[in-house]
Design goal:
The complex is a heterodimer of chains A (about 350) and B (about 170). Chain A has about 350 residues and is mainly α. Chain A contains 13 helices and 2 strands, in the order H-E-H-H-H-H-H-H-H-H-E-H-H-H-H. Chain A has one domain: Cytochrome Bc1 Complex, Chain C, CATH 1.20.810. In chain B, the strands form 2 sheets. In chain B, strands 1, 2, 3, 4, 9, 10 and 11 form a 7-stranded antiparallel beta sheet that branches. The chains are: A mainly alpha (about 350), B alpha+beta (about 170). At the A-B interface, helix 4, helix 5 and helix 10 of A face helix 1 of B.
């Protein structure tokens, strides 16, 4: 029987290695990211029907969405949860690719992945201001002033993001435009490139000896992806039962909270800046960025692709582990152990 | 020998049936939720449903005018109603007076529930739909009602919800 191939079959190779399906090969993290993205697209496009990017109105519209609109609270909570889960899932996906050495010989897709990670942060940050509440207003204020520490492009990056020297009506409109049009366009582009590149590079990276075992993608790979996607959706819905997207009081430019904290994913940088603006705000973030982008070049080990924590790559793996742990630690301290005037406090 | 993929036994059949039924339920639920959200603008546009005041800031008895929304809220114990302040004669804003409403333009006089006491108006003041969401009284400004409509609220213990302070 002549089988017709549909779009999703063209997206995948016709045959895959058996190990591709093993849960430990990828832990389904890429699919988790994709599922988050799809949830974000569905909920985001729906929120777009009700939101107005104007300071006088934005907060009321959000309040309206979560109080008067049926399922509105669920809608906003899902968008919020998927966005935050996407940050964590994106970083874990990056870590999986790094620790299995899967970027070896795939520098291009590694770069696309890093750019996608940048998009995750940009999308989260531009979405943060949209409710125009007190928390988001001051978080974006702090976050954008962190950008200013960066020499050269810093100040112009800040004034580009804010549409001026300070948060204003322009900031809201600009964040909105980036959040719902410009960044999603780049998302579509980079996700397509990212997926296409996996196929071009011959599927998941795998050690030489495991290459011959092959299976048809249809149905096995599709089933595995569907299962991972459904688990991700179930996870988000389950979280939505217990958590709710926060909304504090209306943004008040005259009354800064103390301490004013950046969004949690930038609190690590804020914590580092509190020790030294140059080291914490410029040198260390730049080194981390350089390390990530140059990893395929720095890696001189023979191909170990697909093996977790290969001995040959232990130095790089260790450095990466230190980066993740130290940044996690900085976020932990900044988020929960800092009180008024950024003084250390015990949260209990 | 492996069976062809398109032959399944009874157990596999039931498993697949359950899987597809589950996916169908999930898909239908999500489609329902999103369909409802997409079609809700007519019902829930903020031009129509407006949060007017927290429940616990209304006195237990009395009429409070909200001229900016062209309505007044009544409260009689646990019952709350919203009446239009637009005179049914030519649409002037009526004033709340001791026993009812008085129109300064042409002297129409309405009773405490909007009934016509004296002309030139001939129709009673219309009412609006009222609901209680998150401790706030929301009034549907988009449509006037010919009949009286009351909202029952529990006695004053409703608290502000998180995030509502700024409204």
């Amino acid at each position: 029987m002549e089988k017709r191939r549909h779009f999703f079959q063209h997206l995948h190779p016709p045959m895959i290695r058996r190990r591709t399906l093993h849960p430990l090969s990828t832990m389904g993290l890429g699919i988790l990211c994709l599922a988050c993205f799809l949830v974000l697209a569905a909920t985001g496009l729906t929120l777009l029907l009700y939101y107005v990017p104007y300071p006088e109105v934005a907060y009321d519209r959000i309040l309206h969405i979560v109080t008067a609109l049926r399922y509105g609270r669920l809608l906003r909570t899902l968008h919020y949860l998927a966005a935050n889960v996407l940050i964590v899932a994106g970083i874990l996906h990056l870590a999986r690719v790094f620790w299995t050495g899967s970027y070896q010989g795939r520098g291009m897709n590694w770069t696309y992945g890093l750019l996608l990670l940048g998009l995750i942060f940009l999308s989260n940050f531009t979405g943060y201001i949209l409710p125009w509440d007190q928390t988001s207003y001051w978080a974006v204020k702090v976050g954008s002033s962190l950008a200013e520490y960066f020499p050269g492009i810093g100040p112009s990056l800040k004034s580009f993001l804010l549409g001026g020297e300070d948060i204003s009506q322009e900031t809201l409109l600009r964040s909105f435009a980036l959040h719902v049009a410009i960044l999603p366009f780049l998302w579509g582009l980079l996700i397509s490139l990212h997926f296409w590149r996996i196929r071009r590079d011959g599927g998941l990276a795998a050690p030489e000896e495991e290459r011959p075992e092959r299976l048809a993608s249809a149905p096995w790979l599709f089933r595995a992806e569907m299962a991972a996607g459904l688990l991700a959706l179930a996870f988000l819905l389950l979280l939505a039962l217990f958590l709710e997207a926060p909304l504090s009081s209306r943004a008040d430019p005259l009354h800064p909270p103390n301490p004013a904290k950046a969004p949690w994913y930038f609190v690590g940088i804020q914590e580092m800046v509190s020790y030294s603006a140059t080291w914490g705000g410029v040198v260390i973030p730049a080194l981390i960025g350089l390390f990530l982008f140059l990893a395929p070049v720095l890696d001189r080990a023979k191909p170990t692709a697909g093996r977790w924590f290969a001995r040959e790559r232990r130095v790089l793996n260790f450095i990466f582990m230190m980066v993740i742990l130290s940044q996690g630690f900085m976020i932990l301290i900044g988020q929960w152990f800092r009180g008024e005037n950024w003084v250390f406090k015990i949260p209990w | 020998m492996e069976k062809p993929l398109n032959q399944i036994n009874r157990r596999q059949f039931f498993f697949q049936a359950a899987l597809w039924a589950g996916l169908g339920v999930l898909g239908t639920t999500l489609a329902w939720i999103f369909g409802d959200l997409w079609s809700a603008a007519g019902r829930f546009s903020s031009a129509r449903w407006v949060p007017v005041t927290p429940v616990n800031q209304l006195p237990l008895e009395g009429v409070i005018p909200f001229p900016e929304y062209r309505i007044a809220l009544f409260r009689a114990g646990q019952k709350i109603g919203a009446i239009s302040l637009e005179c049914t004669h030519l649409g002037c804003l009526v004033n709340v007076v001791d026993r009812g409403f008085f129109c300064p333009c042409h002297g129409s006089y309405f009773g405490p529930l909007g009934q016509v006491y004296s002309g030139p108006a001939t129709l009673p003041l219309p009412w609006h739909r009222v609901m209680d969401r998150g401790g706030w009284i929301w009034v549907h400004l988009g449509k006037k009602l010919g009949s009286r409509q009351w909202l029952e609220v529990k006695q004053g213990e409703k608290k502000f919800e998180k995030g509502m302070e700024g409204v």
